[in-house]
Write a structure and sequence with these properties.
By secondary structure, the protein is an alpha/beta fold. The protein contains 18 helices and 21 strands. It starts with about 20 loop residues before the first strand and ends in a 6-residue tail after the last helix.
Length: about 500
C-alpha cells in the first residue's frame, strides 16, 4: 500500500465538514478549470465524478491532475469516481435526419442499414431481436416515444406507437421489460476502465447493471484496484438487488434511466428500498440524477428539488450527487453551496437522528460489529467528540458508519487508497497516516490526529476502535475511551501524520 508523505504542520489545512452526508460533484466543461474545482471543493464537494461518456482521455487526465493537486493543497484525501458509459442502445439514422411517428401508427425496427423514415429505422443491436417478445415496450429518446411490440422475427420488430413524436438519428432505446443478453462492459468501457485504473481512480461506476455477474466481470478486470459502484438504473437489477449489493462495494440510485424504464410514481419507493438495502450492508449508497436540475440555468433551485435532496439526507444516504448542475450548468459553485446548506439544515433538525435511524441495522454476530454498535450507543450516552477508527482495509470504518452514530468518524489508515475510498462513507473524515504498532502509540496518535484535524480540545472525549495485533486486517477487537488534555499536539508538533 502506498504511504502518504504529509508535510509537518500544526493544524490540518482543512477542518471537517459540518455535515455527515457527502457531496459528489460531476466535472465537465463548466467545472474543469482548476480554480472552479478549487471553489467547488471549498463550497462543499467531497468527491468528484468523471463521466466517461463525454470527453477524451487527455481531458480526464488533466482533471485527475487537478484533483490530486487539490489533495496536496488541502491535505485531504479526495475520492474520484469514474462513471463508465455502459452499453447504450440506439436506433440508426434517418434519411432526413429525423422523422415523425404518428400516434397509433405502425413502426418497424429492422437490421437494414438503409436510412429510416416515418415507417422504419435500423436497430443495430442483433441481440435485441432475440430478447424481445410480443407485448413488451420500447422507449425511445428517454421515453418520449413509446412503442409496443406486436411481432418479432429474426430481422424485424413490428411495433405500434402508443406515444408518437419526433424521432431523430441515434436516439437511445430503453427496453424495460426484458433482460438484454449483452455484456455490461463494451469495448469502450474496457478502454476507459484501463485508463481509470492507470490514473488511480478510487471508484468505478458500472452502468446498466442487470445481474451480479456484470459486477464480477468488471471486478475481475479491476484486480483489486479501486472499489466498484453498481448503478441501479434497470428494472432487472431490482429483482436481484441483494445479490448485486453483495457483489459490489457501493451502490448508486441512478434515477435517470430508472425513471425512464419505470413509471414515475414507482421511483421514490424504489429509491428508499435501494438505500435501505445498501445501508443494511454498510456499503455506501449514492442518490443521483436531477437533484438540483433547475440550477443548470437558475441560481436557485425549486422547492421540490430542495425537498428531494432533504429526503435523501433524511433517508440516510451516504452521498448525494450533482450531475449536469456542476458539469455543464451556469451555476456550479452555487449548486454545491445549496446542496451543502440543505444537508446541514437537515442534519441540524432535532428529529434527524431519529429519522436516520428508523432503519434498524442489527450488527452481525462478530466482535467487530458488536464494537461498532457499541460506539454508537456510547456516543448517545456520553459526550463524545469523535469515534477514532484505525483500519487498514476500511471495513471497520464501514461498520461504524452503518450505525449512523451521532458524532463524526475519524478514519486513520496507512493507505492513501483506502483513505480516498472511505471518504464517501457517511460521517467519515479520512486521514492517511503512519500505522501504529502498540496500544500506547494508538492512544497518542488518536489524540494527536483528533486535535490536528479539529475534533475538539482539552476535555474532549474520543472512542478509539482498533485491532490487536496491530496492523493485521480484520482483527478489530479493541474499544477504548480517552480524554484529551490539550497538550498532546504540542508534544508531537514535529511528527507528521
Amino acid at each position: 500500500m502506498t504511504k502518504l508523505q504529509t508535510p509537518k504542520f500544526h493544524q490540518s489545512k482543512f477542518h471537517p465538514r459540518a455535515r455527515k452526508v457527502k457531496i459528489l460533484a460531476t466535472i465537465g466543461p463548466a467545472s474543469s478549470d482548476p480554480d472552479v474545482l478549487r471553489a467547488l471543493f471549498r463550497a462543499g464537494a467531497d468527491a468528484f465524478r468523471f463521466n466517461m461518456s463525454h470527453g477524451d482521455h487527455a481531458m480526464h487526465e488533466a482533471n485527475f491532475r487537478t484533483v490530486r493537486a487539490l489533495e496536496k493543497e488541502f491535505a485531504r484525501p479526495i475520492a474520484i469516481l469514474c462513471d463508465l458509459q455502459g452499453p447504450k442502445l440506439r436506433v440508426g439514422v434517418f434519411a432526413e435526419g429525423k422523422a415523425v411517428i404518428a400516434h397509433g401508427a405502425r413502426f418497424t425496427l429492422d437490421r437494414d442499414e438503409t436510412p429510416g423514415d416515418a415507417t422504419r429505422v435500423c436497430l443495430p443491436h442483433p441481440e435485441l431481436f432475440l430478447a424481445l417478445a410480443e407485448g413488451q415496450r420500447l422507449l425511445i429518446n428517454d421515453g418520449k416515444i413509446r412503442l409496443r411490440v406486436k411481432q418479432v422475427t429474426a430481422d424485424t420488430v413490428h411495433c405500434v406507437a402508443e406515444v408518437g413524436g419526433v424521432i431523430s438519428d441515434r436516439k437511445g432505446v430503453n427496453v424495460p421489460d426484458a433482460e438484454i443478453p449483452i455484456p455490461a462492459l463494451t469495448p469502450k468501457d474496457r478502454r476507459d476502465l484501463d485508463f481509470a485504473m492507470a490514473q488511480g481512480a478510487d471508484w468505478i461506476g458500472l452502468s446498466f447493471v442487470q445481474r451480479p455477474e456484470d459486477i464480477l466481470e468488471a471486478k475481475a478486470l479491476m484486480q483489486g484496484r479501486g472499489f466498484l459502484c453498481a448503478k441501479i438504473e434497470k428494472p432487472q437489477a431490482i429483482t436481484r438487488l441483494d445479490e448485486i449489493i453483495a457483489a459490489a462495494d457501493g451502490v448508486m440510485v441512478a434515477r435517470g434511466d430508472l425513471g425512464v424504464e419505470l413509471n414515475p410514481e414507482e421511483v421514490p419507493p424504489l429509491q428508499k428500498k435501494i438505500v435501505n438495502a445498501s445501508r443494511l450492508t454498510g456499503k455506501p449508497v449514492i442518490v443521483a440524477t436531477q437533484m438540483l436540475e433547475s440550477m443548470i440555468e437558475s441560481p436557485t433551485p425549486t422547492r421540490a428539488e430542495v425537498s428531494d435532496v432533504a429526503n435523501a439526507v433524511y433517508d440516510g444516504a451516504d452521498a448525494v450527487m450533482l450531475s449536469a448542475e456542476t458539469a455543464a450548468g451556469q451555476w456550479p459553485e452555487e449548486a454545491v453551496i445549496m446542496m451543502d446548506k440543505i444537508a446541514c439544515q437537515v442534519e441540524a433538525d432535532e428529529g434527524y437522528k431519529m429519522r436516520v435511524r428508523m432503519l434498524e441495522t442489527p450488527p452481525d454476530a462478530t466482535t467487530a460489529d458488536a464494537l461498532a454498535h457499541a460506539c454508537m450507543t456510547i456516543g448517545d450516552t456520553i459526550s463524545l467528540n469523535a469515534i477514532c477508527v484505525f483500519t487498514s482495509s476500511g471495513s471497520t470504518a464501514r461498520r461504524v458508519a452503518r450505525e449512523r452514530p451521532a458524532v463524526p468518524v475519524l478514519v486513520l489508515t496507512p493507505s492513501v487508497e483506502v483513505a480516498r475510498r472511505v471518504s464517501l462513507l457517511w460521517g467519515a473524515h479520512a486521514v492517511a497516516t503512519r500505522d501504529i504498532g502498540s496500544f500506547e502509540e494508538m492512544i497518542a496518535k488518536g489524540k494527536r490526529m483528533a486535535l490536528r484535524h479539529g475534533f475538539g480540545g482539552a476535555g474532549a472525549n474520543l472512542a478509539m476502535l482498533a485491532g490487536v495485533p496491530f496492523g493485521k486486517s480484520g482483527a478489530t477487537n479493541l474499544l477504548h475511551i480517552v480524554r484529551l488534555t490539550g497538550d498532546e499536539l504540542d508534544e508531537y508538533e514535529f511528527e507528521p501524520d
